[in-house]
Amino acid sequence: MLSLQDCIALSDLTEDEIEAIGAHEHLPDIVALELGHYLVQTPEGEMRIKQIIVDDIEHARAHGDFQRVALLKVTLKHYLEHHANASRR
Questions:
Q1: What does the alpha-carbon distance between residue 38 and residue 32 come to, in Å, rounded to a whole number?
Q2: CB neighbours (10 Å) of residue 5?
Q3: pLDDT at 89 over 60
Q4: 28-44 pLDDT, tens per residue?
Q5: What are the C-alpha distances in Å from 65 to residues 34, 58, 69?
Q6: What is the DSSP string of the chain?
Q7: What is the gyration radius of the CA atoms in the chain, in angstroms?
Q8: Which of 11, 14, 15, 67 sits 20 to 30 Å CA-CA off 39?
């Protein structure tokens, strides 16, 4: 049986990226992981994940959660560095 950590390792995403997807879409971690893994397979999906993280940054900023803003900015930077299609637009 695969653990959540095993699935994360196979997903091409980090825990923070998966958490951002889950928070944005109101999904449990394992479902967010599945959605993220599906999306990361296409350039359009990669762009969708980028937009999810950007939306999460804006939401955190609007609610004054600047610690979360900082974490999500680092998450976005890492995501863009590792998913070339997401950084093209």
A1: 10
A2: 9
A3: no
A4: 999 999 999 999 999 99
A5: 27, 10, 6
A6: ---HHHHHHHTTS-HHHHHHHHHHHT--HHHHHHHHHHHTTSHHHHHHHHHHHHHHHHHHHHTT-HHHHHHHHHHHHHHHHH-GGGG--
A7: 12
A8: 67
Tell me if 86 sits within 8 A of 41, measured CB to CB. no
**Six-digit token string for 51:** 């937009």
State the amino acid at position 52 in one-letter form: I
Average pLDDT estimate for 16-25:
96
For 4, 6, 38, the CA distances from 15, given in Å and listed in that order, are 10, 11, 15
Q: Is the pLDDT of residue 21 over 70?
A: yes
Each residue of 41-67: pLDDT tens digit? 999 999 999 999 999 999 999 999 999
Are the C-beta atoms of residues 57 and 72 closer than 8 Å to each other?
yes
**Rounded to whole angstroms, how far apart are CA atoms 61 and 66?**
6
